[in-house]
Specification:
The structure is a single chain. This protein is of the alpha/beta class. It has two domains: 205 residues, Rossmann fold (3-Layer(aba) Sandwich), CATH 3.40.50; 156 residues, Glycogen Phosphorylase B (Rossmann fold, 3-Layer(aba) Sandwich), CATH 3.40.50.2000. The protein contains 15 helices and 13 strands. A seven-stranded parallel sheet has the order 3-2-1-4-5-6-7, sandwiched between helices. Strand 1, helix 1 and strand 2 form a beta-alpha-beta unit. Helix 8 packs across helix 13 and helix 11 packs across helix 14. The protein is globular.
Length: 376
């Protein structure tokens, strides 16, 4: 079987690229296609495959300016020649599914989310721009939205990384999706027999993560909070931090593992499509205090592996921390770590492999000609 994996761009190793890694494990013979490719920032597991770029990859500073080339990406994807491939897996949160598949190929799209800036977060992105850029965005994205909805019809089967994303696929593309959670390296994390007296936040320090709410809540409660990560809000959040809050920037993986396994709980205020950080904390045996929207509602079991709070407000975070502390002794390290196994790499590969094989068999049976006996 000849396999192609199509990913929007390969310029860093984040959640989407971790999915590509596991797909490369499943299909070691696969060729990889992308719009922009920086081998120095991509894992050896992906680099050992043949990686080909669209013409976007030949444009000036493609690995840095790839988002500026967004209007050209539909054309670039449609020019990819995928004749001869039996199975095409597109990995999508930027444009990737818009290839023109051969008629006989099975096209499966693993969708992290329909493009946020075209669909569910369009107005959030737009309101951050000046007047002229708003006009340009409106004109450009109107056409891109039409293309994206049309491209969704070239997919035989959608896989969503969460129930939340499956609902978006149904809303915007009018397509059903099978939910298979993304792979998390559960075995890389350690559990500890005791914890220290601090709460933890891990992640990129950008606006939608709402780390400001966590800092204000811990300032008010005089609780110790360690914020790990960097990003555009690093200095702003450091200025907000009171005497009990430390914004420490990026840390090595060994240091991060220690922070995870020894914290009282992870604080998580973002509405994510899935959210790998809460799963990493649970793999370390630690409970999660999370905003009760998005993927965290599927990974964090309220009252068992953590606590949900209903609103993105300081008061709501404060109430959740107090609720957690009132029942802190009831959270069991072994039970929390066991729950995280649902999101392991092996679970992902097992489910993806089984589902694709089921769809291949269905496709083969539908392709066979039906012979009817002549009567009379």
């Amino acid at each position: 079987m000849k396999v192609a994996i199509v990913h929007y761009w390969l310029v860093s190793m984040r959640g989407g690229e971790k999915v590509v890694e596991e797909l490369c494990d499943l299909y070691p013979q696969a060729d990889v296609f992308t719009n922009a490719y920086d081998p120095l920032r991509i894992s050896p597991k992906i680099n050992k495959h043949q990686v080909r770029t669209t013409f976007i990859g030949k444009l000036p500073r493609a690995t840095r300016w790839y988002k500026h080339y967004l209007p050209l990406i539909p054309l670039a994807l449609e020019e990819l020649d995928l004749r001869g491939y039996d199975l095409i897996i597109s990995s999508e949160s930027g444009p990737a599914k818009g290839i023109v598949p051969p008629a006989e190929a099975l096209h499966v799209c693993y969708c992290h989310t329909p493009m946020r800036y075209l669909w569910n977060m369009y107005h959030d992105y737009r309101e951050q721009l000046g007047p002229m850029k708003r006009i340009a965005m409106s004109l450009m994205f109107h056409k891109l939205r039409q293309w994206d909805a049309t491209a969704a019809q070239r997919v035989d089967h959608f896989v969503a990384n969460s129930i939340v994303v499956s609902k978006r696929i149904r809303k915007y593309y009018r397509r059903n999706a099978t939910v298979i959670y993304p792979p998390v390296d559960i075995d890389a994390f350690d559990t500890a027999t005791s914890h220290e007296d601090y709460y933890l936040h891990v992640g990129e320090l950008v606006g939608y993560k709402r780390v400001d709410l966590l800092i204000e809540a811990c300032n008010r409660l005089k609780r110790r909070l360690i914020v790990v990560g960097g990003g555009e809000q690093f200095f702003k959040l450091r200025q907000m931090a009171g005497e009990t809050v430390s914004v420490v920037g990026h840390k090595s993986f060994d240091e991060l593992k220690h922070y995870y396994s020894h914290c009282r709980a992870l604080l998580f205020a973002a509405e994510e499509d899935f959210g790998i950080v809460p799963v990493e904390a649970m793999a370390s045996g630690r409970p999660v205090i999370a905003y009760g929207r998005g993927g965290a509602t599927e990974s964090v079991v309220d009252g068992v592996t953590g606590v949900h709070f209903p609103e993105q407000t300081v008061d709501s975070v404060v109430d959740a921390i107090k609720r957690f502390e009132s029942m802190e002794s009831s959270f069991l390290t072994t039970l929390i770590a066991s729950n995280a196994q649902r999101f392991s790499k092996d679970a992902f590969k097992r489910r993806m492999s089984a589902k694709i094989e089921e769809w291949r068999e269905l496709s083969d049976s539908q392709a066979k000609p039906h012979v009817f006996a002549r009567t009379g």
